[in-house]
Queue: 3 jobs
Job 1
Amino acid sequence: MTMTICPSCGTTNAEGVSFCKVCGHKIEPSDQQVKCSSCSQANPAGVTYCWSCGAELPKKTTAQAESPVTSDQRGAPQTGTRVMKKCSSCGQMVDPNASVCPFCSRSFVHYGPVVPIVSRRPDSIRLNIAGILIIISGIVAFYTSYQFFQAEVLIAEEYGIDVSSIGCCGVLEIIFGIGAILGGFFATTQRRFLFPLIGSILGMLSFGPFWIGSILAFIGMLLIVMHKDEFED
């Protein structure tokens, strides 16, 4: 029985392989050995008698010498042996316990854990609508702020009265508008439930003509609360 002993790890490999099935070390022709059927002593390939017991070693038949084993036959499983596995790189059949393909040196060891792919929650059309309504209420807040500033200027020009409190209301409306727009953005991305909720509350303070800003923000807040479970965090 001809075999190949890996000089690196000492693993016994089949005849004709190019790499060790365990460590992947390159196998040279000089590494091939013949196992004595009497004492199981490994002898260098080419010797006639066992170094240990002197028994005659088996030789290749003429058919084997004239018809060398091809790469496809060399990796194919033999009748009566255990099931082999196929190398995805070179297509050869190898030992199922091998860590390295003995024909192409491809490693069968997986490095690191498999990272599962987590599917993202599908976007909710209602949360998108809620976000848009809240963003519109934020824009209305800017319009309301402009109206406050205009009123302050008109009163000062007409009556000469300093009504800086009206201007302060305009500044507050700008803050409310920014908060509402940010809250609407988080609602459309389905993130941070608290931010869209606060944004909708600020949007209800935008007022606007016919209280349109407050109404839109209120509808948006209802949609957010109804679909709270669809937020990621």
Job 2
Amino acid sequence: MERDFTLDPYPDLSRPNTSDYLEHLSWCWRFLHICGTGICHLHVMVGSNMAHLLAKERQFTRLRQFVSSFSVDEYAILYGDEKFNRAMIRLLVEESNYVDALCLLKNGRFYEKDESLLQTWYEIHYKLTELSKGRQLNSLDKYRVRKRQPPPASIWPENKQPRSLRAADTVVTSVLRSWFHEHLERPYPSRDDLAELARQTQLSSQQIRMWFANARRKKLKCQRKGRPTGRATSRATARSTTGL
């Protein structure tokens, strides 16, 4: 008896299971190609759901075959779908194609940003570093990798997105710089000062301390460059005394 399939990427099957769902999606995909309706939103719905399910079930060989069957137009329209991009990242990592996986993490569209994207980013860089060093990474190595390879803004969850002082707006830096110049004789903010500066800039106390530490270091470096060394000073004094 022939099964009665409808062109619905979300079928309401009795006792649904993975094999039934994949069979249904596969039938929908073939139907779209047979009808020759052109690229439409159904291609995105069916293609993204099928790719997602194949990646979830770790059927990567079948997923690669499925993606390889795409036309240029089909791939272009599916590239803008988040569910499809997540499936492709898992496929690329499974195939050890780390460069393309990182490129997709940087340039893909991810509206539901979560920890899994961050973890994937770090795991790829851990693997690349291990390949270059020829050994497994310890905790310190992984910490250094995370510092050297911060995730792009495209995958940072909103509630965890770091506020880097390098990217801080001019209002933030002007507040800190103004306080620094007003206290040049002793540019060390107290706890109350830190609390007030944190309120004005929306930065953490640790970030503010780091900013002032860098500012003091830069000031000291400039002072040393503008001041002659002891040997040069003694030579200048001797010349002025002897008239040479």
Job 3
Amino acid sequence: MIYSKREGIDPRDWLKQANFPSNWKELDLQQWIAERLRSQGYDLKEGVWMDLPGGGRGQADIVLYHDGKPWQVLEVKKIINREGVLLGTNQARAYTSILGATEQPLLMGLAPWSEKEYWSGKNAINLSAHNQVGIIYLNEDERWFPAPNEKIAQTQQTQHRDNNFNFQFKLLNLGLINSLLSNCYSLINRAIDKLNWKQKAIAIVTLCFISFLLSWFHGSKAFDSCPEGSHINNRQEQWK
């Protein structure tokens, strides 16, 4: 069977660009959408529970608010296939009615990988009450494409966190060494009392020299591991 050309980008490429893990879940997609909306200034809540008319409870994935009142319901499905369309549109309409949201609800998710499954979902949209629920394929709508620098920003954040941890670890080691040196000095001072003045002078000079070397060595290591120190070194390399 010959299928029509699909729009947007491949859903697998979308996932890579958005830096999703290989074992991603529907909740990951929900949180990604919510974070994107928050960055645009929307007031929202995730996982809004409510009592259903026929008994039991339902949970809207994302609810947008305006002036403190429910404004729009977003139902998220990992993949918008036939089952996702039928279930998601019914949920979105029901939650909108219960919450009293005034805006048209949306069903959001990724398009199926399979062409057959994709067009089966499209047919389900045509047969369902899609005029009451908006359908958004994230990988086909440019407004929902991952930002070009999204993965880079996450990588830089991870590197900064690792550098900060290494810096704190270096400082901890330096503190432990200083504590040990202090204890050693205390013990040596007791022993020095038993030496003559020449032996005392030699011992004091030797200890001062060792202390200076240790302080200089660990101080330079801590500076090199400090994010600010690395930044300065990088700037100096650029100026050369």
